Amino acid sequence: MKPGRLYLVATPRAGQREGEFLARVAAALDGGVDTLQLRCKDWEARAYTSLGERVRDLSAAHGVPLWINDRVDVAAACGAHGVHLGQGDLPPAWAR
Fold first, then answer.
1. Is the pLDDT higher at 89 or at 6?
2. Nearest Cα to Cα of residue 66 among 86, 45, 47, 81
3. Which domains, ranges and CATH numbers included, belong to the chain?
4. What's the pLDDT band for 96 if we cut at 50, 70, 90?
5. How many C-beta atoms lie closer than 10 Å to residue 51's C-beta?
6. Are the beta carbons of 82 and 67 closer than 8 angstroms?
7. Phi-psi region for residue 63, left (φ > 0), alpha (ψ -120 to 50) or beta?
């Protein structure tokens, strides 16, 4: 996997319809985003994973890797390429 040149951190807005969010992600991918991170702070695992699966399908259709923000469990459950860990998240050794 080559390093990304255009990295998008996609965060759904409060109250945004899922279809609208996915359309915006698809437009970004069509526009050349080559690395995608899904960021759903404070979401429960089930909802985050469900959206992650849909975003994964979009990213896979464009040949773009998907990273999940903060949540190793969600990344594994939705089949993402990896997880972005912040300072307050699991240590990388534990996440591996």
1. 6
2. 81
3. 7-95 (3.20.20.70)
4. confident
5. 21
6. yes
7. left
